[in-house]
Amino acid sequence: MDPETFTPGSGRLEPRAALRSDAPALDLNGTWRFRLSPTATVPDDFARPEFDDASWDDLPVPAHWPLHGHGAPAYTNVSFPIPVDPPHVPGENPTGDYRREFDLPEGWTGGRLRFEGVDSFARVWLNGHELGFSTGSRLPVEFDAGPWLRPGRNVLAVRVHQWSAASYLEDQDMWWLPGIFRDVTLTRSTADVFVRASYRDGRGTLSFEAPGRMSVPELGVADLEPGTEVTLDVEPWTAETPRLYDAVVTCPEESVRLRVGFRTISIADGVLLANGRPILLKGVNRHEFHPEHGRAVPYETMRQDVLRMKQHNINAVRTSHYPPHPDFLDLCDELGLWVIDECDLETHGFGQVGWRANPTDDPRYAEALLDRMRRMVERDKNHPSVIMWSLGNEAGVGRNLAVMADWARERDPSRPLHYEGDLSCAHTDVYSRMYASHAEVEAIGRLAEDPLDDPDLDARRRAMPFLQCEYAHAMGNGPGGLAEYQELFERYPRLAGGFVWEWIDHGLAHPVHEYAYGGDYGEPVHDGNFVIDGLVFPDRTPSPGLLDLKKVFEPVKFEFESGVVRVVNCYDFADLAELELVVTVESAAGTAEVAAGTLGPAGTLAVPAGGGVVKLPDLPAGDRERWLTVRAVLAEDQPWAKAGHEVAWAQTLLAPPPPRPDGTAATTSGTGAGVGFVRDGGEITAGDSAFDAGTGRLVRLFGVEVDGPRLDLWRAPTDNDSYGGLAGRWRALGLHRLTHRVDAVEVGAGLTVRTRVAPAATDLGMRATYRWTFDGGLRLELEVEPEGDWQDPIPRLGLTMSLPREVARVAWFGLGPGEAYPDTGLAARVGRWSATVAELQTPYVFPQENGHRAEVRWADFGGFRVSGEPVFGMTARPWSIEELDAARHRPDLVAGERVHLHLDLAHQGIGTAACGPGPLPRYALRAARATFALRFDPS
Ligand code: IPT
């Protein structure tokens, strides 16, 4: 069969539901024989049972062959890596031939060969007889094996072409990874079951279609006939309360086990409802990805994904941009996530040729698109977690959308349809956008969006709920702006929430680079690190963005009043009975437990199930800055997290810091009170600290050999800085190569160093005046005065100094434990923290600015301590900003001889301009006159 056909397949059986049947099945996963050829034109004699494959290699199934030493992965976002010329494909068409022998158990007759996913075009032979072919990489296909099975030894042969006419439908932003990457089975199950289980006002309605009878023992349902409806007292299924009932459908030849969840999705007055109540989707986009296995994701990893999502207050997932492995949806049913199940369709690369010949609008592709929709809906129709069908992603517009949508509405009227790519929403039930700015989301929330030209379509769309199927692009450091989006989603009933882009960095394990991205395999066309844009790193450790998202998505809020805290339940369905409160007090001395006598036996406070006022225990007294921390934790183990797991928290200031000295050198303390600065050869000394007399820079700080501090404006650009264009303008201006001129070093009662800091080739610059005073400790007042016409925001305003590498640990009082920037770091809280310099680094797969600790009151480096007036930003690294900026992969960063310490007044916000809006204006760092004061004291 020619891979250039528009036909989606041949010889295939009708699609049906993914089911757990007791019919016999043979697992055909395992080690297969494999041969890779560079073109599609190799003879197909390998399918003959007697063919000798001794010279072939072994390859596991499921797997992608490029991840097992055959060929190489390639990454593109929008661009097709082949000429855009449907239905044709290049002569260079990697073709994988697979063979596997299996023994048929005694007495076995009949059966279907089921492939859960083959990327992208598969021809299948059994014992030399061609069963047919299939496309639709992330969709199952079954062939009737019965007539060709024989007792004893059987030979299954599969030919997989990487490129086919169907490749034009699979242009998702991800690695191109061919192969049999999901399970293969020989099954004697033939049944299809369609359960319809809805919920309204305490009652569930159940019916089904199947050639058998249904029973649900827990509900007293026995021998229910197909097509008969029963109404029962049930508990509903929601993502927060994923109540499932075990059901069995007994058919003549097999019994099928199902887990039924009663729930109804509807839309009323432009609001998305589940079981009659509004829901807010706190979602992420999930690609299937594993750093070693690509999209052949092990079951345990899928489970971990769902658990991690639940543990981070995520309640929804969009299966971007194809139906996931069927087990993933079982996990969503069981553990509770709202799912938008998306069809395996993206034709994004046609956008680069003006959408000419887009398959979405080509009648020759209509059958293929309908086929994809049918196979998704039929496979996944029984999942209560699936609340919407999505026609696909970034596939432009065209008549085939109507073909898909019309069929889906007819087959399953119970679920709304989603598709973002058609602004008119002609074929959808919800209005969906990606990366809309806060202002635009707000306008949509107020029903004040720009109208469509067609008044009927406009009226239709205006009556729809709105969601952001992608927002807050989590590439590298960020995303910024999460809290402000959430505030809008919570404010306007029309806004049903959204899905952050995306769950995981698709970094492939690499022997040199640790994690590879586009270009690392020598791909001629690629999109670099744009595939590294997840909330978890490739090994699934949470990045700071996920911790922020957890905070923003908290289902519990706290309002502090005198002696009490009001606990507000923000779940859509669940109550707070599972939670209890842990109360602590944070100060510079650390965390203090509160008086145990006032607490319950577990040292915690009970939470009223519906929320409400909780009396706080007596709190320890003190006169220094103190913060009350209230944490809502799980009182008992839940299926998705252990007892003690923190769900939400808040802090309130109990006592402000004592008033500061007036800013001049203190005279009341310090052995060196009144001692001034002394010129001593090339140095200016103050106690056991010293400055270079020529540059005015510190060289010794209480005996520790240092260099600096000096004014710095640069940061290693974040992905958001770079892709948003700002970093390019910064480099053009030369902010990464500032020159420093010393105009005066004046010794008097204090030390004054006057400088001008500026890049070459411009008249822009900053006057920086350092005023040092000494009272046993050193106090620095820095005054910065911009000169010239600064147009763009600047990366940073702060000081840089270096320390000996022996300075390996930092203790601080301020926000922590993680990084925080003006519009990120919502997960950071006030406390006393400690970390090694190594631990202060956030290991972004593509190195960039990271690790900034915010609102630091003081930081102790062992030997000396820096204090803010009142606070400063602190970053300490075993490499310089220049080295960080030059690095392209994690292993490029090697700890050097010095620790580089950055003491900052301000940073430019992070935003999400890698895809979407930059920082909101209030988080932009404008060049302006500023003063900044710090104290340095011996530890
Ligand atoms: C959007 C895509 O839908 C998604 O797959 C991903 O590529 C994302 O961008 C960026 O990482 S499409 C974009 C043109 C807004």
Description:
Residues 683-937 form the Beta galactosidase small chain/ domain. GO terms for molecular function: beta-galactosidase activity; carbohydrate binding. Belongs to the glycosyl hydrolase 2 family. Keywords: Glycosidase, Hydrolase. This is Beta-galactosidase. This protein is mainly beta. The protein has 5 domains: 9-187, Galactose-binding domain-like (Jelly Rolls), CATH 2.60.120.260; 194-252, no CATH class; 278-551, Alpha-Beta Barrel (TIM Barrel), CATH 3.20.20; 561-653, Immunoglobulin-like; 678-938, Beta-galactosidase, Chain A, domain 5 (Distorted Sandwich), CATH 2.70.98.10. The chain has 11 helices and 60 strands. The strands form 12 sheets. The protein has a 16-stranded antiparallel sheet that branches. Helix 5 packs parallel to helix 7. The longest helix is centred in the middle third of the chain and has 15 residues, at 366-380. The chain is globular, with a radius of gyration of 31 Å. The chain starts with 8 loop residues before the first strand and ends with a strand. The model is unreliable at 663-674 (pLDDT under 50). It binds 1-methylethyl 1-thio-beta-D-galactopyranoside.
